[in-house]
Amino acid sequence: MFRQVAHRLLTRSTTNHSACAAATILRPYSTDVSTDASSGDSAFVEAWKKVAPNIDPPKTPIQFMEPRPPTPSTLPSKLTVNFVLPYAAELSKAEVDMVIVPATTGQMGILPGHVPTIAELKPGLLSVHEGNDVKKYFISSGFAFVHSNSYADILAVEAIPLDRIDPAQVQKGLSEFTQKLNSASTDLDKAEAQIGVDVHSALNSALTG
């Protein structure tokens, strides 16, 4: 009996996995999905009318979205970057030559025509290159979304221009957290001190590199 049940479960799991794999392969990129802001979410509107036919349906998020730029047939000369923080937009549709982000796997350069990628970001240096002009930021963490149409969306929890950071304060903080790490007696104290050491070490590397 156990073998029969196990065989059924394994067969069902394999079938479902194959279906999911096929769906993943056939799934279009986000830039291939059309965004018709005028029509909105037709399924939502139809469902709303069935429940409240005398009340106009509220607007859905899709109605506030701009149409996605299509994937170009030729390699564009510029990378379009959106660099967003919870409280501000540092860059909005800025056309640049390259962006280098501190991914958890290492520094990652993003050029026009980059393959679609999602990268988790760690504390480190983010640089935006446009000709001879280079803007540098220190970011705490976040994600970078690279799309097939040479658009890159960079979302950071915190970011500050590198030229606004005081090197003396960084060295002071690194020394203090190193002492806390050496004297920590609990796992919580060690974890908090280690985070401080890692962040200040990344700050120091960004300033001296």
TrEMBL record:
This is Uncharacterized protein.
